[in-house]
Amino acid sequence: MLKKEQIVVGLEVGTSKVCAVVGETMEGGNLQIIGVGQVPSTGVRKGEIVDMDAAMQNITDAVAAAEDSAGVEIHNVLASVSGGHIRCFNNRGSVIVTNEDREITDEEVRNVLLNAKAVNIPMDHVVVHAIRQRFYVDGADGIQNPVRMLGSKLEADVHVIHGVRTRFQNTIRCIKQVPLDVQNIAVSSFASALAVLTTEQQKLGAVVLDIGGGTTDFLVYREGTIQHSGVFAVGGDHLTNDIAIGLRIPMSRAEQLKIEHGSVEIPEVDEAISFKREVGLPDLQVSKQQLCRIMRLRVEETLTLVRKELDRQKLFDYLAAGVFITGGCARVRGLEALAGEIFALPVHIGHSQTINGPTSAIESPEYSTAIGLVRYAQGSQRDQHQAPSPADKVKSTFHHLLQKVRTMM
Amino acid sequence: MATRKSPSETADTSARVRLKLVGVGGAGGNAVSQIAGTLTGLEVIAVNTDLQALHGLADVEKMQIGSAVTHGLGAGGEVELGLRAAQQDTERLEAAVQNSDLVFLVAGLGGGTGTGAAPVVARVAKGQGALVLGFAILPFTFEGERRRQQALAGLEQLKAQADAVICIANDKLFKVVGENATAAEAFQKGNDLVATGVQAFWQLLSRKGLINVDFADLRAALGSKHSDGIFSFGSATGAEKTRAAVKAVMDNPLLDGGEVLAKAETVLVSVLGGPDMTLVDVQRAVEPISRATPRAHVIMGAAIDEEYVDRLAITVIATANLIQRRPPVSVSTRQTAGSRVAASSPLRTGSLVAVAPVADVKTPAKKESAPKQESLPLEGVSRGRFDKSEPTLVDGEDLDVPTFIRRGVSLKR
Predict the structure, then answer these.
(1) Are residues B164 and B77 in the same domain?
(2) Which of A245, A294, A297 sits opposite B382 (nearest CB)?
């Protein structure tokens, strides 16, 4: 029988699917995916739950499938959250070191991080992540871990991600009603980045673009730390909706057409795609060029929105590793080339390369958020049992988050 | 002409382009007959179900359709009859429009023959290899909701068949002619507008282009199914010709004092001048117009006509969603009520019908047509499945509305 601590479950309640990934910490701390459960989502729009009952049923089914596939019982999960209400900013906090010997201890570090995220956010918002970027000791730059250093003033830069409290609560409540314990929550882009980027790529600088069913989440690593992130509530659903309106066909047809024939490369020669309708009606024909044109316009627009964000933050010179696209829409044909044109950076379709497991799960871009959650959980657990490792950016947020999840309830 | 051509080729086209002007229905016939008097080098055909109305026309080739359906009378406002009449005489229509490159189709929508037969004529003409540019005259509001709905339904049909359709709303005539004008003057003016339109388009497509505009551009500008094509034309001579021509274009009542331009999705600006036209002239002509259209995709063209010495003409074709497409309020009941009223109190409706430009009131509507399913109109912008969700606003744009709609990209099907 596996010990409870060794099993971690990432649960993504997404717009198009609800997906649970079961991970197991192996000997030596390596993480292995041992089970995946997935069902189509029916209660979520644009990354946020709109129908609690439907979402609850989906979660129950997905978790049951994951239990079957992994052969374990699941009691608690880590959940991802997304939605257009999520905002971020970078902030600097500072504390005066008051010890007699001026040695910086864990306590100072904790305090400076608390100070850094104590900023004005809207009343109804709550901080999900306050991720440390770098420390300054007496103004000296680029310090990764100041513990046991000497100095009189400690400063810290953090990347704060926050959003509307009640909207996060919806997700947590829904999962709790299943009933499952929610260990922690993480924003989708952060989880996906954990799954997709290696430490090396984080240091080189990279953008992770998770284009899901209802949202496009992005996160930028610069010199090993998270520099920028964001959510646009635009995703694959919008592609389907555009197609349905543009070609005047039902949503289900549009979805099917998008998956089977869709591309963002407009073919030179038009061809007619015909499909059967109900008995008695003639076959419907649509133009492939039109289909692709509709899709290209939408994808182009979404990618351009992200590019503008990067431009605004002047981040283009720090992204040597390039753009990593993940999420279900990463499967859209021709996306790599189009993104290459728009970003003028190397573009990769992201696989979850930081974790071991069955190829079917690792190679599927739509699983990266849930897989990233498992990795996030691992980081958090190690934090509970082991001494802090400076390279792990995840741990500092954990205690705080755990508490928050409890207080949110 | 559907494809891009070099200027020299286009110049040749003007010589050999075979043009036909076809008026369908009462209003269409009246309009083309009047145009035939002012334009030369144009083969003009009037198509109608009503023999009597055809007899009154001058300078045109006349063609009566659907004699077996209407027995030489009008269609009596029944679209179905107009449609059947045209279908019955498809072969004769084919013969009439064959050997032409470009067919201008003028029809008053809202009545029976114009609304029902015009889409058929458009389809036939296209089948014979011609490009079809439709001019749709929309009824006055006071003609009632039924005609309005019939006209809008017909407009959709016509748009589906023709390569491009320009709308001329009769309501705008009030602004053109003023309130004291007689009804005859008003319709005269309406026909003048159509004539100007035909002339402007002909010039646009046939002249040697410096910056070439061809049918492909025109189609791109007018192809959108959910918007309405409007045109404006202005020409002037003399030292201040550019400014005067621009002013004439902008003052055109059809543009609603620039409101149309402000709403427009696509605007095509074509400048026609003499060999002495300078680039600055073109700039001065186009700039104020593109300034007035902040949202639109502007396509411009410039052409030279040897005869246009010291003269400048500007044609503006804009597409915008202008006609309010209100949901049809149970068309069938209104129709029934309408015909009953017509029978019982001729004074009330009779006076309205008399002013109607495409009135085919020769046959009273005895038969009540079966309830017809109207297509649901598109209200404003479409958000589809995100209709009830919170809008995703980025930089003032609602991202839930399909990108192709916001960008005004036409999806011609």
Answers:
(1) yes
(2) A245
